[in-house]
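Journal club side-thread
Mid-discussion, someone asked how the predicted structure for our own chain would compare to the paper's figures. Pasting it here so we can look after the session.
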Amino acid sequence: MVKLGTESAVNGKIRCDACPVMCYIADGKSGACDRYANMGGDLIRVDPLTIIEATISEGGKVVPFLPGSDSDEWDGDLVQAKRSFVTAVGAGTTYPDYKPAPFIVSQKERGVDMVTVVTEGIFSYCGAKVKIDTDRFLGPEASAVRVEGEQIGHVTTGEYGSQMLSLGGVHHLTGGSKKEGRVTCDALMRLCNGEAVEMVIDGGAQLTVKAGAAPIINGVEEKRMRVGCGSATIGMFAKQWAPFLDEVVVVDDHITGVLSEHQAGKLLDVKPTGIKIKGRRSTPGRYFQVAEPGTGWGGTNITDPLDIIGDFDSKVAYPGLRMLMVSTTGEQSGYYILDENLRPILQTDLPTAVRETVELVEDNCEPAVATVLFMGGAGGSLRAGVTRNPVQLTRSVKDAITYVSCGGAPAYVWPGGGITVMADVTQMPANSFGYVPTPALVAPIEFTMRLDDYRALGGHMEAVVPIEDALKVAERTVDPREHAPWPTEKQNFKWRA
């Protein structure tokens, strides 16, 4: 618990100024956010200040020389036994914004004097971008996404094998009813902290979403995302199908593929079959709108794939013609042979060679995962905790002089004005996110740069302390994420060359 000092007292309560709510907190109690408390008249930060520590004591991992550095920079430490980075998780905020960030720590990195400015931002302008790996129809584009009946976001575009949701944002946090703001804030915090959140899409599916886990759609856990659209699947596996089949139809809500008409089939000398596909023909072997979107075969609403096929052309088709119909994930498949009336008859057993091609489609499908990216805009008040001239920080970030991280995880900074960041919540320490009842999300953000660059952009030099001072009050240590860049590494900066 970080002691923040003694604040003004009224009737035995102290006033917390860590957010605009300005709670009066009785001794032994916490504020409305559960993040600050009164302990014997002192305002304390309840959540532990968190550092990332790279050490060989955890898991016995030995790091030879210095990862990411040149050999001529070796400082004699063979295993680099300990390396620390102070995150903003548990650090506290700058509110009411004229104050320097809670921790501005200096440390030496490869002989370079570095500084990291650490603060928990109060993000009224924030949300989550959610990628759900599935072929199934979740809901019409722009449909409302609801939690407890309140709209917290909407469906955006369908991407390759995934559906995207845009959740949160200032209009849902502050622009609607109090309940909408509260529910939105709570759902965002739980999602970003790695908890499962149940939601319903207007005109669509019921979802359970948890970062890094398989999505649950209408009560069924999704297993895999599609290998590609129907046309791409034909192209990928045409060579495997051509020796054993006369026709293959890969059913897909977006682009259904037909082997005999597809250019891949033509080049492999697959003969015409006289097949008729219901839908809008795009180019040879590629069909749009073969059915309505749904949770059936290939993200369509069909359960019987023959529903998308018309009568075969009797001038071309022939009895005994062998046809495979398969979904883009390989989860559904059927093997058919045309009878004397040119009707496809489902066979109870797939020939071994055909079954192996279906298994190949399945093997090429990646596991379905829900991905949650926190997205927030670092406003002028947050930047003022870094420098007296906030626009200088923005320019420094855009010029790659300052590196931005969220709980030590790399943050993607959007081009254009301001500092709008996105970060993968699974790469951040557990319980990195909190809230204030305004409502707004509280999220960690760190700005790392050379000490001289910090001085040049008008930083709060009087508040800089050595990292050892911050480590004394840190109460939680976490391991670095595998393959994640270390925030102070020189490759994160323009001056690295």
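Post-session note: The radius of gyration is 28 Å.
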